[in-house]
Design goal:
Helix content of chain A: 25-40%
CATH architecture of the largest domain in chain B: 3-Layer(aba) Sandwich
CATH superfamily of the largest domain in chain A: FAD/NAD(P)-binding domain
Number of strands of chain A: 18
Largest interface: A-B, 26 and 24 residues
Distance between the termini of chain A: 11 Å
CATH architecture of the largest domain in chain A: 3-Layer(bba) Sandwich
Distance between the termini of chain B: 49 Å
CATH topology of the largest domain in chain B: Rossmann fold
Structural class of chain A: alpha/beta
Oligomer: heterodimer
Radius of gyration of chain A: 22 Å
Number of helices of chain B: 20
Helix content of chain B: 40-55%
Number of strands of chain B: 12
Chain lengths: 354, 430
C-alpha cells in the first residue's frame, strides 16, 4: 500500500518551507535534521540579520518554524541521519539513525534539502592568510561577531578602525574548482558592511570586488544604501596579497579602474567565501543514488523550466543542495518540491479512490 | 617610463600641453618637463592582436582573463614598475602589439600570478610563446641576444670557455671526482650549472658544497667540461630552439655515465630536469642540493655557532614552481646559533629576485622600465625585518643580491650567503 507520508531531509529554510507547504496541504510528514535545532545555516552559523531584509535571523527563522511545532501531522527527528533507502516512488522505506538507535520510516516521496557549507579558504594555499592571521575572518565568522554586537579584531578584542571585504573567495575560480558564482556573497558582504557601520560608526569599510552582482532588488535594497547612506567604499580590484605589518594587516592589490597599485592598512579582513555542497549533501546524494554535478551539488533535471526534479522518481531536491541559492530561491524551491511530492502521492493513491 | 622620441612625434603638436606650474592629485609637480597629453581615445577593441597570441601554442590562456586584478597585486614587477598580467590582457585588447612591446620582456616567469589566478591565465607559458615569435622576427633586447649567443657558442651565458668549466674545483680544498676521469659509477651525479662553475661568488658556494659532500661521505662526482647550460631560463626568455638543442646534447652526455640520482645546484636546472627534459627522453631522479642535505643535518659535527639573524629568500623555481619550501629552512634551523626570521613575502608568496625568465640578462633593459631592481626591493625587505644575513640557494641570487646590497646602501648591514656557505662556516673550525 503506497505511503501518504513525505520525508524531508534537512531542516533549513528549504526543508522548513517544504514542511509548511505540505502541512497546509494536509500531507503527513517527517523531518530528518542532523543538527540540534531546526533553522539551517542562518541558525547553526549564527547569522546576524537575513539578507536582504535585515530581519534578525533568530526571529525570522523562529517565525518560520513556529507553525511546525506541536502539529501532530509533523514528525521531527533532530540529531538524526538517514542510513539506508529501500523501495521506489510511492513506497520508500528509510532507516533513520538517531542517538544510537535505528528506526524505519515509510514515505511515498522524499524531499532532499541538505544545503551548503561555507568555502574553506584553505590552510595550504596561504592565499589570504586565513589560517595565519587572526584578523583575517570569513563572512560566516563575521556574522557571528555582528550577531553578538561585538565586531572586534580577534587578535586583541578591540573594535577595528578599518575593515575590508574581499569578494569571490572560493567562487568563480577554475583553479580552486568552483567555477560558479555563489550568488549571495556580494549582497551579504554589503549587508554586513552596513551592519558594521551601524555598530561602529567611526569605522571605515572597504569592499574589493570584481563586479558587484546584485540581482534584482538587491541593487537598491543593499548595494546603494551601503554606498550612499553608510559610506562604504566599493573598489573594483581584487586584493591578492595579505601581509602582517606590526599588529595590523596590509593588503595589496590593484585598483583596476585606475590601473594603479593600492596598499591599504586594515584591522579586520573579511573573506567573502562562497558556497560548496555540504557534507550532508554529498553523503545523501550517494546514499539515495542522486547524480551530482562536477562541484558535488545534486543535479536537478529539466532546468530552467523545472527546479526540483531529480533523476530518481519520487525524490525531489530543494535549496542550496542543488547549487548556490539565496533564501528566496531556497524557500521557493521548498514550496515547489512540496507541491511536486503531493502531486506524486495523489497519482499513486488517488484521493477518494479507496 | 622614458618617453621615446618617436612616440612624442606621433602626437599632434596641438594635443601636447605644457604646464610650468601643475598640481596633480594634490602633488605639486611643477617643472618644464611636464608634458600632458590628451588621452588617446579608444575607438575600437579589436580581437585580432589578442587572436595572434591565443593562436600560439602556450598563448591560449591570455584570452581567458576576466580582469579581477588579483595577479597585479602579487606581481613582483608591478611593485617596482607599471606592469601586470591583467594590464597585458587589456593593453593587447585595446591595440598593443605585444610582439614588439617592451612589456614582453619584463615578466620574470616567477608564477605568482598563476598561483592566484582564478582563470588559470598562464604567463609562464604565454610569455615564452610570444617571445619566441618576437625573437624569430628579430625583436629581442640586445643584452639578452648576447646571452643567447654566448650560450650557443660556449655552452654558458657568461661567455666563459668550456674547457674551464671544472676549474673551480682546484681551490675547493677537497678532491672533486670528475666521472669522465674516474670512469666509476656514482650514487650522486652533481650537475653544477654555469654560475656555480664560473661566477666568482657562485664558485665559492660550489666549493663549500663540495667540502660538505666530502665531509658527509657522499658518493658523488661531477661531469666537468662536457656539462653545458641546462638553458631553462633561455627557454623561458624565448629561445626554445637553443634550449632543445642543449637538452638533447646534455641528455646524450648523461647517457655516458652511471649514476642513481642527479643533484642540481640551480633551481632552474631542477625545474628543467624535472619538468622539461623528460619530454626529450631524459628522465632522472633529481634532487636540489638542499633536499639532499636537509635529511643529513644530524650527521654534521658543528664546530661553530653562527649568531646571525638570517632570513631566507625562496627561489621561485624551487618553491612556487616545484613546491619545495621546507628543505632550505630545515638546514638553516639545524645550524647552531642561527636565528631564522621570515620576510613579509615568503614561501608561496615569495618575492622574485628578478633573475628568472631571462631577467638575469636584462638588467640594463629593465633599469629603463623599473623604478628599482627586484633584487633591490627584496634586499630592502630583508633589512626591514632586521636580518643580518640574506640566505639563498639559487646561483643567480648571490651576485644579484650582493649588487643590490651595495646599490641600496646596505653594505655592512646585510650579508648575502648561500645556505651551503653558512653550513660550511659552522662546520669548520673558527
Amino acid at each position: 500500500m503506497p505511503s501518504e507520508r513525505v520525508l524531508i531531509i534537512g531542516g533549513g529554510p528549504a526543508g522548513i518551507e517544504a514542511a509548511r507547504s505540505l502541512a497546509d496541504l494536509g500531507i503527513p510528514l517527517t523531518i530528518i535534521e542532523s543538527g540540534e535545532r531546526l533553522g539551517g545555516m542562518p541558525i547553526t552559523a549564527h547569522y546576524a540579520a537575513l539578507t536582504p531584509s535585515f530581519e534578525d535571523a533568530e526571529q525570522a527563522m523562529g517565525r518560520m518554524i513556529a507553525p511546525l511545532l506541536g502539529n501532530p501531522a509533523i514528525d521531527v527527528h533532530l540529531q538524526s541521519t538517514i542510513t539506508a533507502l529501500r523501495g521506489a516512488a510511492g513506497n520508500f522505506a528509510l532507516t533513520v539513525a538517531s542517538d544510537g538507535t535505528q528506526a524505519e520510516v515509510e514515505a511515498g516521496a522524499i524531499i532532499v534539502a541538505t544545503g551548503f557549507q561555507h568555502f574553506d579558504p584553505g590552510r595550504e594555499t596561504q592565499m589570504y592568510g586565513y589560517y595565519e592571521f587572526d584578523d583575517v575572518i570569513t563572512l560566516a565568522d563575521s556574522e557571528r561577531l555582528l550577531k553578538e554586537h561585538r565586531f572586534v579584531r580577534p587578535s586583541d578584542g578591540r573594535p577595528p578602525e578599518r575593515v575590508a571585504f574581499i569578494q569571490c573567495v572560493g567562487s568563480r575560480d577554475r583553479q580552486i574548482g568552483n567555477e560558479f558564482c555563489s550568488k549571495v556573497c556580494c549582497g551579504v558582504a554589503s549587508k554586513q558592511a552596513i551592519e558594521i557601520r551601524q555598530q561602529l560608526p567611526d569605522s571605515k569599510v572597504f569592499i574589493f570586488y570584481i563586479d558587484m552582482r546584485m540581482y534584482g532588488y538587491w541593487e537598491n535594497q543593499i548595494y546603494w544604501p551601503a554606498q550612499e547612506k553608510y559610506k562604504v567604499n566599493f573598489i573594483r580590484g581584487i586584493v591578492a596579497e595579505v601581509l602582517k605589518k606590526g599588529d595590523r594587516l596590509v593588503i595589496r592589490g590593484e585598483d583596476t579602474t585606475l590601473g594603479r597599485p593600492m596598499e591599504i592598512v586594515v584591522d579586520v579582513l573579511v573573506l567573502s567565501v562562497g558556497m560548496e555542497p555540504s557534507k550532508g549533501t554529498r553523503e545523501i546524494a550517494k546514499l539515495l543514488g542522486l547524480p551530482q554535478n562536477k562541484y558535488g551539488f545534486i543535479e536537478t533535471q529539466g532546468a530552467p523550466l523545472a527546479t526540483v526534479v531529480t533523476a530518481v522518481p519520487g525524490i525531489f531536491a530543494a535549496g542550496s543542495c542543488t547549487g548556490p541559492a539565496d533564501l528566496e530561491d531556497c524557500v521557493s524551491m521548498g514550496a515547489a518540491a512540496a507541491l511536486k511530492a503531493t502531486a506524486l502521492l495523489r497519482k499513486k493513491a488517488p484521493a477518494g479512490g479507496g | 617610463m622614458p618617453i621615446e622620441k618617436e612616440k612624442l612625434l606621433s602626437v599632434e603638436p596641438a594635443r601636447i600641453h605644457e604646464h610650468e606650474h601643475l598640481v596633480l592629485e594634490g602633488s605639486d609637480i611643477s617643472g618644464h618637463w611636464n608634458r600632458m597629453f590628451e588621452q588617446r581615445v579608444l575607438w575600437d577593441y579589436t580581437p585580432d592582436l589578442l587572436g595572434k597570441i591565443t593562436a600560439l601554442e602556450g598563448g591560449e590562456s591570455l584570452g581567458w582573463c576576466y580582469q579581477c586584478g588579483k595577479c597585479v597585486g602579487v606581481c613582483p614587477v608591478d611593485v617596482v614598475g607599471d606592469y601586470g598580467p591583467r594590464k597585458i590582457f587589456r593593453k593587447v585588447q585595446s591595440g598593443t602589439d605585444l610582439f614588439t612591446s617592451d612589456d614582453l620582456w619584463l615578466c620574470t616567469t616567477c608564477m605568482n600570478c598563476l598561483r592566484v589566478c582564478p582563470k588559470e591565465v598562464d604567463m609562464v607559458k604565454i610569455m615564452p610563446a610570444v617571445r619566441e615569435q618576437a625573437m624569430l622576427e628579430g625583436n629581442v633586447p640586445a643584452e639578452l641576444q648576447d646571452a643567447f649567443e654566448k650560450t650557443a657558442k660556449y655552452g654558458n651565458p657568461l661567455g666563459e670557455p668550456a674547457r674551464k668549466r671544472a676549474d673551480w674545483t682546484r681551490d675547493a680544498g677537497v678532491e672533486v671526482p670528475i666521472v669522465a676521469k674516474t670512469g666509476k659509477p656514482v650514487d650522486l651525479l652533481w650537475w653544477v650549472e654555469c654560475y656555480p662553475a664560473y661566477h666568482p661568488r657562485g664558485k665559492e658556494a660550489a666549493r663549500a658544497l663540495a667540502r660538505t659532500l666530502v665531509a658527509l661521505g657522499v658518493d658523488f662526482g661531477i661531469i666537468g667540461i662536457e656539462e653545458k647550460c641546462v638553458a631553462d631560463s633561455q627557454r623561458l626568455a624565448g629561445e626554445k630552439g637553443l634550449f632543445e638543442s642543449l637538452a638533447e646534447e646534455n641528455i646524450k652526455t648523461l647517457r655516458n655515465y652511471q649514476f642513481r640520482r642527479l643533484m642540481v645546484t640551480d633551481p632552474h636546472a631542477y625545474n628543467a630536469f624535472r619538468n622539461e627534459y623528460p619530454r626529450y627522453g631524459g628522465s632522472y631522479e633529481v634532487v636540489h642540493y638542499t633536499q639532499l642535505l636537509a635529511p643529513l643535518m644530524s650527521k654534521i659535527e658543528w664546530k661553530k655557532e653562527l649568531r646571525y639573524k638570517v632570513t631566507f629568500h625562496d627561489p621561485c623555481y624551487l618553491g612556487r614552481h616545484n613546491g619545495e619550501y621546507e628543505a632550505p629552512r630545515a638546514i638553516l634551523k639545524a645550524i647552531p646559533g642561527l636565528e631564522l626570521v621570515e620576510m613579509f613575502r615568503c614561501r608561496q608568496n615569495g618575492y622574485c629576485c628578478g633573475g628568472g625568465g631571462g631577467g638575469m640578462w636584462l638588467d640594463g633593459f629593465n633599469t629603463q622600465h623599473l623604478r628599482e631592481r627586484l633584487s633591490e626591493r627584496r634586499v630592502r625587505e630583508a633589512v626591514e625585518v632586521g636580518a643580518e644575513v640574506l640566505a639563498v640557494c639559487c646561483p643567480f641570487e648571490v651576485s644579484r643580491f650582493e649588487d643590490a646590497v651595495k646599490s641600496t646602501g646596505n653594505e655592512g648591514k646585510l650579508l648575502v650567503r648561500d645556505i651551503v656557505e653558512l653550513m660550511d662556516e659552522a662546520r669548520r673550525a673558527a
